[in-house]
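Backbone geometry tokens:
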Amino acid sequence: MGRYRLALAACAAALTLAAHAGPTAICNPDPRLNAVILDFPDVTNPLLLDIIRAVQVPASNRPLYDRLRQPTSIKELAGSRTLILYYDPIQDLDEIAQSMRNDVQISSAFTRILRDQFACDDPMMAPRPTPELLKIVEFHHTAQDIYFISALPAEIEWIDGGGAGGGWRRTGQAWFTYATTPGCADPEYNPVYRFFGTPGLGPANTHFYTARPDECGWLRNTQGWSYLTVAFGAKRPLVDIGCPADAPVAVRRLYNNRAAQNRSNHRYTSSDAIYAEMLAKGWLGEGVQFCVKNTALGF
């Protein structure tokens, strides 16, 4: 990602002015939330039926559906004057809600257009559960000299069993971290987004991980990388402070600088020795990218 870093800010700014349809300029910082709430004063407004119809059957009014930012479903709350639009969880709700407020026709039909949100600090909420603890395991393919990490137990077992083909071996690097959760949790970790090089367009046979919503959004708006899923949870490093107390282990990222050969690969490490070793081999250091609970060396 080193060669893309300078373009991020300019590209993200341009995307906010781009067409309504398609990926948002940044990714949803909290994919647990995927709804925009619209309150309407006039039940007879014909635009309401147009919106419902456009969401239920996008082909019936594709321009309107795109201006709504392509919701996946819609619900009208019984006994209220509220519509709820649901979206792909990776889409940024703030951007979607603001684009509808900026749309003169759509905004004229509603008294409020708000993104969904949790009230985790509400004292009436149930006690926060401890999220699932995950183990991130690093693999290396000797012949291709590429690295890969996974926190999915089934995927890890599959690779160990040769399902990904011969040549993959555990490096001994591993970490414990928490999953993101469907509700309020303690500790509450941020999503780490997982991408794969788009076949025929992007880097071959490689994955990329970022905890930054802006970097995630930029990647979704390029052709070289395809978004897959939220891979695991982590904390983002704090400016001038570093990793917080509930995620004290800093994980840094390195880039092999082989975009010209279409063989880009990134390695993630919390080891000073490994970081220095990879720099000596010509990899580019990209600094701390996310923070996890602790290391689990020997896996």
